[in-house]
Design brief:
Layout lengths: L1 H16 L1 H4 L1 H16 L16 H6 L8 H24 L1 H5 L10 H13 L8 H13 L5 H15 L6 H7 L3 H22 L18 E2 L6 H6 L7 E5 L4 E5 L3 H30 L2 H4 L1 H21 L13 H9 L6 H20 L1 H5 L3 H25 L3 H4 L12 H17 L18 E2 L3 E2 L4
Antiparallel strand pairs: 1-3, 2-3, 4-5
Helix pairs in contact: 1-5, 1-7, 5-7, 5-8, 7-16, 7-17, 8-9, 8-16, 9-11, 10-11, 10-13, 10-15, 13-15, 15-16, 15-19, 16-17, 17-19
């Protein structure tokens, strides 16, 4: 009943009460679908597009009720997201069976309840954006990560071809996998080959990677963490203003140093991701054979590493759209479902971040663009909390696994015969070499619009 209540309330908000404020991206999706189905013009195939090509899967999936009615498309989309969230909820409730009992022996509803609370706290953007499609996919991928890494890799790669961000989570999966080339790289390459081959066959090869460059013209979006000093400055001086980027339909900060900051953050984004990947690689080698002898150590590296990569992508991003917060939820929900220790702080902190994000958007966004101090300070506090979450995640990754072991963590004797045999083989090999066994190597985004007419296209923008 709680799940139905959360989903129904979000649907009512986005479809009936505040559609132009909460679900306006869906009208853009509807318009793109109408163009493709009725005019034969496909974004990403016939022209450059802000999204990867597989984004067409959910966009067309939401068109089952038609593409001529804004409310009809939004309702169909919301029901599709509800179905995906239901699958994620089922996975969280049956984690021992899906993840393997060597990782989690007893089921708990903790992760499922937290997931529902997060969706309610984040509000309409947890349903009315493409990110709402990939979030439940990532939940399932992380639950399956240690037991079926090949399937997890395929899901994360497909998610990346829909909304890019899940691709970064392949890094901790690669590092936690026993046979990374077979179980992670090969499935990712296979999924990518299917997507690329389909686009090329349809004649879209010139625009295959256009989504990587379409965002280059963005300035410093006001919600971005890196924009915080200028956001505060906009309350103190007229030299810093909040303006609408008409071409990209996003609100940006303009003033001394804003463009330089946007360019710098754009460069730091890739450097920060590389640094996070190197940090996780170092941590994996520090843990060494523990990953095989104690599956929960591998689970911690996977989900905490996923949270690190997702948080880095938000903190070091010049965009900072509210739906990005949804990237952070899957690792926390899965960690709670696995009963991993030391996740309470992350769960509470992210819940607060989600609630603050909903206050910012959609409820308080007009106040921010109108320079109202209270609204601006909520956004500032949210951004500070994101930095705190990033630091906390790094600290927790450095925590010694011996101290993090839960009382109910299965010993080697309680593991399945196959796991005990693998552990024995690893220990025997290690003893023979007299060294520890080594681990296998391994803005809103779319242009937000309000009301679109199926025959005339986008009419007005945020």
């Amino acid at each position: 009943m709680a799940f139905v209540a959360v989903q129904a309330w979000t649907l009512v908000l986005g479809v009936l009460l505040i559609p132009a404020r909460a679900f306006w991206d869906l009208d853009l999706y509807r318009w793109w679908a109408w163009q493709g189905l009725h005019q034969g013009t496909w974004q990403g195939i016939d022209s450059a597009w802000v999204y990867p090509p597989a984004a067409w899967l959910p966009i067309l999936g939401g068109s089952w009720a038609g593409t001529t009615s804004t409310a009809g498309y939004a309702t169909a989309w919301s029901l599709m997201i509800t179905a995906l969230d239901a699958v994620a909820l089922f996975a969280l409730l049956h984690t021992p069976a899906w993840a393997g009992r060597a990782t989690s022996r007893t089921a708990t509803t903790r992760g499922a309840w937290w997931w529902l609370a997060f969706l309610a706290l984040l509000g309409p953007v947890s349903m009315g954006r493409l990110d709402a499609v990939v979030a439940p996919v990532v939940v399932v991928a992380l639950v399956l990560g240690l037991r079926h890494p090949w399937l997890s890799s395929a899901l994360l790669t497909l998610g990346a071809w829909i909304k890019v961000a899940p691709g970064a989570l392949v890094v901790p999966l690669l590092l936690a996998a026993r046979k990374p080339w077979r179980d992670v790289i090969a499935p990712a390459a296979a999924v990518s080959a299917v997507v690329v081959g389909t686009v090329v066959a349809l004649g879209g090869s010139p625009y295959l990677t256009s989504f990587l460059t379409e965002q280059d013209q963005r300035g410093l979006q006001l919600e971005a963490v890196g924009a915080t000093p200028w956001l505060v400055g906009s309350l103190l001086t007229d030299r810093i203003t909040i303006v609408l980027n008409q071409q990209l339909v996003s609100w940006e900060l303009r003033g001394p140093g804003t463009q330089a900051a946007a360019d710098t953050i754009g460069s730091l984004f890739f450097l920060a991701l590389a640094a996070a990947a190197l940090f996780l690689w170092w941590r994996r080698h520090e843990l060494d054979g523990l990953l095989w002898r104690r599956p929960r150590v591998g689970a911690e590296l996977l989900v905490r590493g996923a949270l690190l990569m997702a948080t880095v992508m938000i903190v070091f991003n010049k965009v900072g759209s509210p739906q990005y917060i949804g990237w952070l939820a899957p690792p926390v929900a899965v960690a709670l479902a696995l009963r991993l220790p030391r996740w309470r702080t992350s769960a509470i902190l992210l819940a607060v971040i989600a609630g603050a994000t909903q206050i910012v958007f959609p409820w308080g966004y007009d106040g921010i663009t109108g320079y109202h101090p209270a609204n601006v300070l909520v956004l500032v506090a949210r951004n500070v909390a994101l930095v705190v979450l990033l630091v906390h995640t790094v600290v927790e990754l450095l925590h010694r696994p011996e101290e993090a072991q839960q009382p109910d963590e299965p010993s080697a004797e309680s593991q399945p015969d196959e796991s005990r045999a693998d552990a024995a083989a690893t220990n025997a090999s290690s003893a023979a070499r007299d060294v520890p066994s080594s681990i296998a190597s391994s803005g809103s985004d779319s242009s937000s619009v309000q009301a679109l007419d199926a025959s005339s296209g986008p009419a007005s923008a945020r």
